[in-house]
Design a protein that fits this description.
EC 2.3.3.16; single chain; alpha+beta; Acyl_CoA_acyltransferase; citrate synthase (unknown stereospecificity); three-stranded antiparallel sheet; four-stranded antiparallel sheet
């Protein structure tokens, strides 16, 4: 982008991508431009507050360009490329009307080939005229509650030639021309995120930039939870403080214990944990506080209490007394203790810790997107996590690890594995634990989980399930060219650890609470209500016939 001249040739304006060090300069432009455009309007945020927000949210999550003249920043534009939304475009006073804004707008248009949407204050007549000259048209208004002026602002849309922006803009009503429908939102970018990514060049799932297989080998689950929430791995002092804080909050109230004892004995543990989390929301001392800090404290409390709830519900269903959590235990030790009433050998604990790390987070999967969707409405942490648990229960998502173990038990004998699988092929039946929408060349988490599932087989002294798994995986790859996913080795690993099959997905919840809550906090930090469009296929508008004529 270097050397991009001003549109009208009046300035030798150069455009470049913004960097972390630009926050203060951009905040100064932002303040000065807004004061110039609306001198009677009191800016609600200080320049330092705007700079801090830019450094934490705008710059890392959006595409931002800086316009410079003689090495000095004179304007900037910020684009949310996922939604084609121009978030900011400001030019410093003294440089307005000299082509700088037009150059920035051209850059944003080039980066958003499907079209652009933006909102402009009604009172800012100069901005409305500017966008009108550059091809934007008014398409509606947004509630005044959505901006600091308290006055409805105007939605403006720009579309390139031969493109109907209304097909992709979530801010517009439906058109008369049928849009492209992306069933399952396949291929749709709904938002930006800094939590995790599957790196295509290495086929590796990464958390905050770290490959998950490296984290599994070198870190504890508590370290990874801290990473997902804080953005960086903890040092020794930070980790110790984090462990002490969360371990001290593992107890659940006598009231919740009474409620759990009233659950139907045959209730699925996922239904039990969903209800328990909802009850925790009723009791939470900060239930009505949805500030970032309060939401973060709730996330850590859920991280601490969910294993206790799982253990209490499981043991109540078996007529057993609950086991009190021990704050001296690690996360893995605590899970075994509150469920099984024992702490196993270190090899088992390591295998379990690895599974927790591998299950902790996985971009915009169904349950994570559910949690973000709920959060976008302004709901609190417990509401979002309860919804995430409900989504995770489905057999096409979290319930797959349970289905894998049921499948292995149905096969029963390694000698029957190949014939059993071919029978499934003949009937075109689903084989659980294989395939993944994201990974086409194999789930990057599988080799690590398989390694530790094999270790569990060695500890227990029973290779039946791993041998059946080996045969099924080889046959699926040879006959169908389909690789296993994480649920395939995790199912037998949990079974060999002594967990009953209905507990597999609740254990998944104990892990994924970290990823869900990281996304809840991220969604809340730069929120916009998630409200997609639908294409109506029902009857056209028609009159209501009187009752006698129906």
């Amino acid at each position: 982008m270097a050397g991009a001249a001003g549109r009208d040739g009046l300035d030798a304006a150069t455009l470049r991508p913004a960097g972390p060090g630009d926050a203060a300069a951009l905040a100064a432009i932002h303040h000065a431009a807004r004061a110039s455009a609306a001198p009677r309007f009191a800016e609600p945020w200080s320049r330092a507050e705007v700079a801090a927000w830019m450094a934490a949210v705008l710059l890392p999550r959006h595409r931002v360009w800086v316009a410079e003249i003689a090495g000095a920043a004179v304007g900037y534009a910020a684009l949310d490329p996922a939604g084609g939304v121009l978030l900011h475009l400001y030019v410093a006073p003294g440089f307005q009307g000299r082509g700088v804004g037009g150059s920035l707008l051209d850059q944003a248009k080039a980066a958003a080939p499907g079209g652009l949407a933006l909102h402009v204050f009604q009172r800012n007549l100069a901005a409305r005229r500017f966008y009108g000259r550059h091809g934007f048209r008014a398409a509606g208004c947004r509630d005044g509650a959505a901006n600091e002026e308290g006055v409805p602002d105007i939605l403006c849309l720009w579309r390139p030639p031969a493109t109907d922006l209304t097909r992709g803009a979530q801010t517009m009503s439906e058109t008369s021309e049928k849009p492209t429908i992306y069933k399952g939102l396949v291929g749709v970018y709904a938002d930006v995120s800094a939590v995790s990514k599957v790196m295509p060049e290495t086929n590796s799932l990464t958390y905050r930039g770290y490959a998950v297989q490296d984290l599994a080998e070198n870190c504890s689950f508590e370290e990874v939870a801290y990473l997902l929430w804080e953005g960086e791995l903890p040092n020794a002092a930070q980790l110790e403080a984090f462990k002490q804080e969360t371990a001290s909050q593992r107890e659940i109230s006598p009231a919740l214990h009474r409620v759990i004892r009233e659950f139907p004995k045959d209730a699925h543990p996922m239904d039990a944990i969903r209800t328990a989390v909802s009850f925790l929301g009723l009791e939470d001392p900060e239930a009505g506080d949805v500030s970032h800090d309060a939401q973060y404290r709730k996330a850590k409390r859920l991280f601490a209490k969910i294993p206790t709830c799982i253990g209490a519900a499981y043991r109540a269903s078996r007529g057993l007394d609950p086991v009190a959590p021990n704050p001296a235990h690690s996360f893995a030790e605590n899970v075994f203790n509150v469920i099984q009433g024992r702490v196993p050998e270190k090899e088992v604990l390591k295998s379990f810790d690895v599974s927790m790390i591998l299950y902790a987070e996985h971009t915009f999967n169904a349950s994570t997107y559910t949690a973000r969707l709920v959060t976008s409405s302004g709901a609190d942490m417990h509401g979002a996590i309860t919804a995430g648990i409900a989504s995770l229960k489905g057999p096409l998502h979290g319930g797959a690890n349970e289905a894998v173990m049921h499948m292995l038990k149905e096969v029963g004998d390694p000698a029957k594995a190949a014939a059993w699988l071919h029978g499934r092929f003949d009937h075109k039946a689903l084989v659980m634990g294989f395939g993944h929408r994201v990974y086409k060349s194999g789930d990057s988490r599988v080799p690590t989980m398989k390694k530790y599932a094999e270790k569990m087989a060695e500890v227990v002294g029973d290779r039946t399930w791993m041998e059946i798994s080996r045969i099924l995986a080889a046959e699926m790859l040879e006959k169908k060219n389909i690789h296993p996913n994480l649920d395939f080795p995790a199912g037998p690993a949990y079974y060999l650890m002594g967990f009953e099959i209905p507990l597999f997905t609740p254990i998944f919840v104990a892990s994924r609470i970290t990823g869900w809550s990281a996304h809840v906090l991220e969604q809340q930090a730069d929120n916009r209500l998630i409200r997609p469009l639908s294409w109506y296929t029902g009857p056209e508008q028609r009159p209501v016939p009187p009752l006698a004529a129906r």
